[in-house]
Design brief:
The complex is a heterodimer.
Chain A lengths: L2 H4 L4 E2 L7 H26 L6 H24 L3 H18 L6 H19 L1 H24 L3 H5 L2 H4 L8 H9 L8 H22 L5 H23 L3 H34 L6 H36 L3 H21 L6
Helix pairs in contact in A: 2-3, 2-4, 3-4, 5-13, 5-14, 6-11, 6-12, 10-12, 10-13, 11-12, 12-13, 12-14
Chain B lengths: L20 E4 L7 E4 L3 H31 L4 H28 L5 H5 L2 E5 L7 H9 L1 H13 L8 H17 L10 H6 L1 E5 L23 E2 L8 H12 L5 H15 L3 H4 L3 H21 L17
Antiparallel strand pairs in B: 1-2, 3-4
Helix pairs in contact in B: 1-2, 2-4, 5-6, 8-11, 9-11
Classes of the chains: A mainly alpha, B mainly alpha.
């Protein structure tokens, strides 16, 4: 017979054997409810509305509740209680470990450290993106010079803006050195350029999802267009003038495009070659870092849009155009090489 | 720091696909559980967001048209520049800005009590929000564009349409084929969408009621040997359910009395009080055993026979 049968049968009332977990809950309930009230307030009106006193109590309450949860899992069979505590801990967790720094501070930290650091870390991908663009440009140049009709293969009608292999030198010159817009229209032009280019950059990143292949194509194609334009200007002896027209904003814009392209390549690479980590985890980490590159290009596109929309329309002086190109090149060179490096 | 989604148990009463908790590791070392959002919920939230975008676009469009109708002074050009940026923010940055501002929630997600969290439980950062939303460009807008305007890219329209359609279907069904119900963008960001936790603390069923009559139900240790943890928690579910039908109590009281050998007549009409008292006593007994290291999961077979 089992041991139980040997025991004398003791009549025992419910009052005598009240569950220990009942006492456990009674002792700690106040803490949980206080935390719950605080979390609810933060969820409804934002964490910034908690008072200093609340904030100083929050970590202690959170820790106490988490420890209650782990004790409760061991000693109580009350499923409702465990579910409640589990839930409350998640809510508190999201509050306590949520992003805590303000927008300005996090923007500053991002621009002064995270962004340039990430660019340096993925210098190889950026170099590959540049290589694609340069190869595309040279190919476009060579192909269009050998057969001017190729220009129309690479450049769409609206992008050409009436320019082509048949254009005369004066026609080309007028585009490079004419003032086309009244100064008031510049703000609109700037906003249009900025939004269009940023969208293109974002799409380049998203293309990375298709194993990176479209990114290569897009970068090379971008280069082909550039090369085709270069070819028709070179034929008329305007090669340098073209670059001085392009580069003041082009330095920033091409750099930003190459970063978006690099981000797309990083995604494609992460999909194909997970490396040491499990694939899903690797995708998460690489995807985030690639997104850092894309976020960083937003202010770059804005700057490029400003230069293109305002400066290029107002300034025809070759020296100024050259100086701006050089200045932006130096600025970005310094920024990506030195910014956020630890000084030792 | 890896999260695993466990397949739920049928006993939860919900359909298998609906119930799927996700385990979050925390710095405290205590795993927490959140409920993954169902695909239906996410889709509804998305539709709500699309509706909001459509409404805002319409408002912005009419505003732009109104500004355009004014004489083209320098001010109107500035205003249209601002509207242009606003349109960009609306189309490209709608999800991103809301998820940044509201910590992983958009109007649609808020309405359906959903929220984006990091798969490994850490803080949600801006780059994750960007990563999971920039991919929409390919996941949604590109296949849609191929479907609606197949001539843009050139090539035969029917072929392009087919490609767009297949792309849309494959990407839309993607969440069905992984444990975290992740969209492609979620994979790249390392995020998941969960239901907002909002459990209430119910009164403790095992706490003694102040009514002295209720303590008239006394159980012997022998009577508390029959049931296990599973039955206890089923009983908890019944007692916690405010809408439980009267007949359910009848059936359960009948069964319990027969199983533990408690005189049915002593219960009378106070069925709920009896079940509560039994629940309290049974839980105390099982928890006591738990402390001693004996975890009794299930009931014992057989029916109590007095003196047997």
């Amino acid at each position: 017979m089992s041991a139980r049968a040997v025991q004398p049968v003791q009549p025992s009332t419910a009052r005598e054997i009240e569950a220990r977990s009942v006492q456990f809950r009674r002792d700690r309930e106040a803490t949980w409810l206080e935390l719950e009230e605080m979390v609810e307030r933060a969820e409804k009106r934002g964490p910034r509305r908690l008072s200093a006193e609340d904030l100083s109590r929050l970590p202690a309450l959170h820790r106490a509740t988490v420890s209650s949860l782990s004790v409760a899992r061991a000693i109580t069979l009350d499923r409702g209680l465990i579910a409640y505590l589990d839930n409350l801990c998640v809510r508190a967790h999201l509050l306590v470990y949520g992003p805590s720094v303000g927008l300005i501070k996090s923007t500053r930290r991002f621009m002064s450290q995270r962004f340039p650091e990430t660019v340096r870390r993925y210098a190889k991908a950026v170099a590959v993106a540049w290589a694609c663009m340069i190869i595309g440009t040279l190919a476009g140049l060579a192909l269009t010079r050998s057969d001017p009709e190729m220009f129309y293969v690479f450049v769409g009608k609206n992008l050409a803006g009436g320019r082509g292999p048949m254009s005369t030198r004066d026609e080309l010159r007028n585009v490079l050195y004419g003032i086309h817009k009244s100064p008031d229209a510049l703000a609109y032009l700037t906003s249009e350029l900025f939004t269009h280019n940023t969208r293109v950059g974002f799409t380049a990143f998203a293309f990375g999802m298709l194993f990176g292949l479209p990114v290569f194509l897009a970068l090379i194609y971008n280069g082909l267009i550039l090369g085709a334009f270069w070819a028709i200007h070179l034929d008329q002896g305007l090669g340098l003038d073209l670059w001085l027209w392009l580069l003041p904003h082009g330095v920033t814009e091409l750099l930003a495009i190459s970063l978006c392209g690099a981000a797309g390549l990083i995604l494609g690479h992460a999909l194909l070659f997970p490396g040491q980590r499990p694939r899903m985890q690797n995708l998460g980490i690489e995807g985030r870092n690639a997104a850092v590159l894309v976020i960083g290009t937003i202010p770059m596109f804005l700057l490029a849009g400003l230069i293109e929309g305002v400066l290029r329309q107002l300034v025809n002086d070759v020296a100024v155009r050259g100086a701006v190109s050089l200045l932006t090149a130096l600025l970005w060179g310094w920024y990506f090489a030195r910014m956020g490096r630890e000084t030792r | 720091m890896r999260a695993k989604a466990k397949r739920g148990k049928a006993e939860s009463g919900k359909a298998k696909s609906e119930w799927r908790p996700l385990e979050l590791e925390t710095p405290e070392g205590v795993p927490l559980h959140v409920q993954l959002a169902s695909i239906r919920q996410r889709f509804s939230a998305f539709i709500v967001d699309l509706f909001v975008i459509a409404m805002l676009t319409w408002a912005l469009d009419s505003l732009t048209r109104w500004v355009d109708a004014l004489s083209a002074g320098s001010l109107t050009l500035w205003i249209s520049a601002v509207l242009r940026i606003a349109g960009f923010v609306l189309h490209t940055l709608y999800f991103i800005s809301f998820e940044l501002l509201w910590r992983g929630r958009t109007p649609g997600k808020r309405l359906l009590s959903l929220r984006v969290v990091r798969r490994d439980g850490g803080p949600l950062r801006a780059e994750m929000i960007f990563a999971r939303n920039l991919t929409r460009e390919i996941e949604l807008w590109l296949p849609l564009a191929l479907l609606i305007a197949p001539t843009v890219l050139g090539g035969p329209a029917s072929l392009v349409r087919t490609i767009g359609f297949i792309g849309l279907i494959v990407l839309a069904l993607f969440p069905y084929f992984n444990t975290n119900r992740a969209r492609l963008g979620d994979l790249f960001a390392g995020t998941v969408v969960v239901q907002e936790p909002n459990h209430r603390l119910l009164p403790d069923l095992a706490a003694l009621s102040p009514d002295p009559l209720d303590s008239s139900f006394a159980f012997t240790l022998d009577q508390l040997e029959h049931y296990g943890i599973y039955e206890l928690q089923v009983l908890e579910g019944l007692l916690a359910n405010d809408h439980a039908p009267e007949e359910a109590f009848d059936v359960v009281v009948e069964k319990v009395c027969r199983k533990i050998g408690f005189p049915r007549d002593a219960v009378g009409e106070r069925k709920e009080a009896f079940l509560k008292a039994f629940y309290a006593a049974q839980r105390a007994r099982l928890e006591q055993k738990l402390l001693m290291g004996r975890r009794q999961e299930r009931k014992r077979s057989g029916i109590f026979r007095p003196g047997g």
